[in-house]
Automatic annotation (TrEMBL):
InterPro entries: Acyl-CoA_DH_C, Acyl-CoA_Oxase/DH_mid-dom_sf, AcylCo_DH-like_C, AcylCoA_DH/ox_N, AcylCoA_DH/ox_N_sf, AcylCoA_DH/oxidase_NM_dom_sf. This is Acyl-CoA dehydrogenase family protein. It comes from Actinomycetospora aeridis. Residues 34-119 form the Acyl-CoA dehydrogenase/oxidase N-terminal domain. Keywords: Oxidoreductase. The keyword Ribonucleoprotein does not apply. Residues 248-383 form the Acyl-CoA dehydrogenase C-terminal domain.
Length: 409
């Protein structure tokens, strides 16, 4: 089944490529508006989002982090997080897909050699590749066999966000006779050795194509193993920045979903909700408890958005000089990321639940699907326990302990 999103009325080919952060945010808001039109219907259909991904490509958002000389946006992570937030406000699933895509696009810089970074970013930007990833650390490791000039990936992962809608997939595994050595590689998604199982059937983020995948001897040249020279990897502290970045991507689409819920609820309250019959008021927008609820939820959202923006800016020196980052700087940044992840989780869940208090009984109809905002946030916030994020902050406050780099910290 394909998606039902109507083709955008905007011909992006006639528009100038955005250059500034503001222009990219304006482009993201345009995409948000197109996605929001039938987001409820597409969520109910649960169809593969080919058209939505085409929209991300046509709009140029997939090349946001790409080099300008190859047609990309040349932007940095603070802008990327805000763009993800905007898209997620229109459709949480598509915001997640964009966020994961940008993470895997950037991953070449995380672990690749200079030559690999230049080649991957140039090709991905020119061709507008859409990235997926099969890197779930909770599963058994994918096994990599050294076969001379090539390596092969064999195994299964429970989650592979992007799957069928991706052009390329990031794989990760461990060498067969050296399980301490992890290898990342980018491979074409459409090939016989990769089977996507179409078994993503969760209550939220229904359009993220996050089902399981089987790898049956996916062949990759050793030259394409990210960061390896002569089959040897030289680790850097910067290699461990994958977790802070992906956690801030999560924050971005959590806050975007919350913003979408709040904005759509406010529109419904202004145009459809009725004042309580015993209130003595004519309009729902004049109800004191309704006003208080919107003020409370908006203030909380603004506060976390501001914290998220601040933490993103704090990381710029790390990203701009990867070879200079220290374990101390990385650890202190992760503590701040953990703090904003915890607050974003709590606030997004609160907003997407409490909007029902000011919408009224008629707003629970399945056609409106206001519940999709909560379902989306609830589904993804279970990715890793938020209590462990608060623990990272608490240990740092009490005993000056920095988080040790893991797949989740």
């Amino acid at each position: 089944m394909t998606s039902t999103l109507p083709r955008p009325t905007t011909d992006f080919s006639t528009l100038p490529t955005p250059r500034t952060e503001q222009e990219w945010l304006d482009r993201a808001r345009l995409v948000r508006g197109l996605l929001a039109v039938d987001a409820a219907a597409r969520d109910a259909a649960g169809a593969t989002p080919y058209t939505e991904v085409a929209l991300l490509k046509d709009s140029g958002l997939v090349t946001l982090l790409g080099p300008v000389e190859h047609g990309g946006g040349g932007q940095e992570w603070p802008t990327a997080y805000r763009v993800i937030r905007e898209v997620a406000a229109g459709d949480g699933s598509i915001g997640q897909l964009l966020g994961y895509h940008l993470l895997w696009f950037w991953a070449a810089r995380l672990v690749g050699t200079p030559e690999q970074i230049e080649q991957v970013e140039a090709e991905a930007t020119r061709q507008r590749w859409f990235f997926g990833g099969a890197v779930n650390p909770r599963d058994a490791d994918v096994v990599i066999r050294d076969e001379g000039d090539e390596i092969t990936f064999t195994g299964r992962k429970s989650f592979s966000t992007g799957s069928k809608v991706s052009d390329v997939t990031v794989l990760e595994g461990v060498l067969e006779n050296d399980p301490a050595t992890h290898v990342f590689a980018i491979v074409p998604s459409d090939q016989p050795a990769i089977t996507f199982h179409d078994d993503w059937d969760n209550i939220g983020q229904r359009l993220t194509e996050s089902g399981s995948v089987t790898l049956d001897g996916v062949r990759v040249p050793w030259a394409a193993a990210a960061g390896f020279r002569d089959k040897v990897f030289a680790p850097r502290v910067y290699n461990t920045l994958n977790v802070p970045v992906i956690q801030l991507v999560f924050v971005a689409f959590y806050l975007g979903i919350a913003r979408g819920a709040l904005d759509e609820a406010a529109q419904y309250t202004r145009g459809t909700s009725r004042a309580w019959l015993h209130s003595g008021l004519d309009r729902a927008v004049d109800e004191p408890y309704v006003i208080d609820t919107y003020g409370d939820l908006t203030a909380k959202l603004w506060a976390v958005e501001a914290l998220a923006d601040a933490v993103a800016l704090e990381a710029l020196p790390i990203h701009r000089d990867p070879d200079a980052v220290t374990e101390q700087a990385r650890g202190e940044h992760e503590v701040r990321v953990a703090a904003v992840k915890a607050r974003a989780t709590d606030v997004a869940l609160e907003i997407t639940s409490r909007v029902f208090e000011v919408l009224g009984a008629r707003a629970t109809t399945s056609t409106l699907a206001f519940d999709r905002f909560w379902r989306n946030v609830r589904t993804h916030t279970l990715h890793d326990p938020v209590a462990y994020k608060r623990r990272e902050v608490g240990r740092w406050v009490l005993v000056d302990e920095l988080p040790q780099p893991t797949w989740y910290s």
